[in-house]
Amino acid sequence: MISGDLFADTPPGQSWALAPGAWCLPARARDHAEELLAAVAWVVARAPFRHMRTPGGRVMGVGLTNCGALGWVSDEGGYRYTERDPLSGHPWPTMPQGFRELAAACAAEGGYPGFAPDACLINCYEPGVGLSPHQDRDEQDFAAPIVSVSLGLPAVFLFGGLRRRDVFRRLTLAHGDVVVWGGPTRLAYHGVQPLRDGAHAMVGRKRINLTFRQAG
Ligand code: MD3
Ligand code: FE
Predict the structure, then answer these.
(1) pTM for this one?
(2) Which CATH architecture has domain 2-213?
(3) pLDDT per residue rounded down to tens, the chain (216 residues)
């Protein structure tokens, strides 16, 4: 069930309301991309991308890692936030200062001042890989928004309503786009269509998505 077709083609510096409490900041992170990607490489050198197992026994197509005080993990036991990377037993890499500052600035622009993320999930998509519709409800306080930053290949993002069966809208998220998901939209179902093949000049044959959360 997919209706409508939205494209984040507003000029930089403008934001538009995507849904109640949710704001699209097109190309907001574009000028920070080199710095963000260098910081992603720094994190990945300490906590590599891995394919986590779902509680149902499947292996996720998306490669995932984290930085910050808390990191999201999934395994046979379920989904949860942990203070340590289960692969290394060490705390997750510190959240780079530039990450925190960008996320807080974008949240404030979306009407959520004082956003202090303690977790940043980093997702890596390759062509053919998507993410099936789900809700993000492993965080303590749903009053805090989630800020997402897209880098690399574009993806068709799907977002629905509070019930799985609600209609899904589609939105293409391109390199540098930021979305602030708060208010009633914080608990909306959402997913990502399998990535189309392509190559991004700066990032290559992949899409990297940063999602900033106040998890604890
Ligand atoms: C809407 N990631 O990590 S980011 C996830 O592109 C996740 O990697 C997607 O869904 C990605 O959980 C989507 C955009 C996003 C993130 C969280 C949301 C949209 C959201 C929470 C509520 C509503
Ligand atoms: Fe999600």
Answers:
(1) 0.94
(2) Sandwich (2.60)
(3) 344 445 555 555 689 999 999 999 999 999 999 999 999 999 999 999 999 999 999 999 999 999 999 999 999 999 999 999 999 999 999 999 999 999 999 999 999 999 999 999 999 999 999 999 999 999 999 999 999 999 999 999 999 999 999 999 999 999 999 999 999 999 999 999 999 999 999 999 999 999 999 999
CB 152 within 8 A of CB 204: yes
- Nearest CA to 23 out of 136, 114, 145 is that of 145
Burial class of residue 113 (count of CB atoms within 10 Å of its CB; 0-12, 13-18, 19+): exposed
- Ligand 2 centroid to 200 CA: how many Å? 23
**Which residues surround ligand 1 with Cβ inside 6 Å?**
121, 123, 131, 136, 146, 148, 159, 179, 181, 185-186, 188, 190, 192, 209, 211
Amino acid at 29: A
What are the φ/ψ torsions at residue 33 (nearest 5 degrees)?
A: -60, -45
Give the Cα separation of 61 and 17 in Å (integer): 30
Produce one character per residue of 63-93: b if its CB has 16 or more CB atoms within 10 Å, e if not. bbbbbbbbbbbbeeeeeebeeebeeeeebbb
Structure tokens at 155: 């993806």
